[in-house]
Amino acid sequence: xxxMLSDREIKELLGSxxxxxxxESIRPNSYVLRLGAHGEFLNTSKEFELGKKKxxxxxHPGHSVGVTALETLDFRRETVHTHFPDCDLHGILSxxxxxxxxxxxxxxxxxxxGYHGTINWTITNTSSEERRFVLGERLFRLTIFRLEKxxxxxxxxxxxxxxxTGYVRSRRVGAPVGMKDTxxxxxxxxxxxxxxxxxxxxxxxxWHLLGQRLKVIDQQLKSVSEEYSEIHDAIGRMTTxxxxxxxxxxxxxxxxxxxxxxxxxxxxxRWLVGAGAITVAxxxxxxxxxxxxxxxxxxxxxxxxxxxxxxxxAIGALYIISRQKx
Length: 326
Description:
The chain has seven helices and 13 strands.
């Protein structure tokens, strides 16, 4: 039965079966391949090379990138037999759980016995956020199985990608040349909007120009619809915030009325106290002066001026009291 290699056994393969490997990438029963320098943005067919000026790559939402492993694998029998005589190695590649947690989709695949070269794979960003990866980042988990003598294949791998390093584009043989459009099946419905638009484009001049223009407008309308949806969601969030503020401010009028009532009562009390004090003072002056002849003679001579001065003083005192705070 095939035997899964442990960390001790994987460590012995570094430098020969796993060329350019790093002991930090060894896990209990697997080795985590790192991001290599070469690749291609599949949405634009733009190839790139990291390590010189660029240190990493950005994957926008909905975009796919073909990448390579930093390590080279050598599963050829002459290399494997130096470690495991009469045995072959078979590998299973799967993405790390970090990728799936971030909405990155990457396919699992196998490494056949006898394979030699660099591993390529594709990552697709299905999330709504941009994802970034740096050169040498650990992304793909390699689990290695030792195939015993009775499990080894009669013919090891000798395919199109044997002994290829760096990023290698797909070498799948394409469709035969000369097939008609009617021989292809697609998702368009007969008589649907897409079908009518394609028929218009195929109608020739000048209708194909109109059809192409309508196709561009359709794409623009889709973009506008997506932007409108984002605006609608933003308005919904703002409405919720406003409602919360209104709920918090529901008791504001009653609070204002209560404060005004308290201020009015306080002001009224101050005026009453001030008026009472002035009345008592005036009464005391009258009583004291009426019993003294000298003061009475003085008041007869200067009473008018003294009365006006007292009235002015009383007005000033009341003004000062009205300006005081609680």
